[in-house]
Design goal:
about 160 residues, Glutaredoxin, 5-stranded mixed beta sheet, 7 strands, globular
Length: about 160
């Protein structure tokens, strides 16, 4: 019984800690593949509405949000972002990338959370894999030239606390 309780607690800790997914009871080391000062590895996206987005066409700062609809930390971050001044800032482009999410799930999520910025379906983790190995939500701050300014694993009660350019 003790082992079952211990395994359950470890599974819960992994679930609420950055919403990492695992197939066993090992804790995942979060690796971030993009570094401050590097050019972002992906600059073109197609959102769930079919609109093409090219980061190179915008002179704004950008906030990339890597998230999963099922993750409580991601849900909290998206609610905070939707309610924040960043969402209204004309000098910041926000693009949210749903890790292992399809268009239908993201469309439902956008409706439920009243999201008004582009959502990108990353069904096979092809985009996410260029940024990290595990953990959502992740915030990637870019300057106007698409250079990485900061990377944040946005867990906890105030997921936007570290968002500053």
């Amino acid at each position: 019984m003790k082992q079952l309780i211990s395994a359950s607690l470890l599974s819960l800790a992994l679930f609420v800690s950055g919403c990492a997914t695992t197939t066993d009871n090992e804790q995942i080391e979060y690796l971030t593949y993009v570094k401050v000062g590097q050019v972002v590895p992906v600059t073109q996206f197609t959102d769930i509405q079919g609109n093409k987005i090219n980061l190179e066409e915008s002179a704004n700062a950008k906030l990339l949000v890597l998230f999963a609809t099922w993750c409580p930390d991601s849900q909290r971050a998206m609610k905070a972002l939707e309610a924040s001044d960043l969402n209204l800032d004309p000098n910041v482009d926000i693009i949210a990338i749903g890790r292992e999410e399809n268009i239908a799930a993201l469309d439902k999520f956008a409706s439920e959370y009243e999201i008004n910025f582009p959502l990108i379906a990353d069904t096979d983790r092809a985009i996410y894999a260029k940024f990290a190995n595990a953990g959502v939500p992740r915030l990637i701050l870019l300057d106007a030239h698409n250079i990485v300014v900061k990377t944040i694993i946005a867990e906890g009660e105030n997921p936007l606390a570290e968002v500053q350019w």
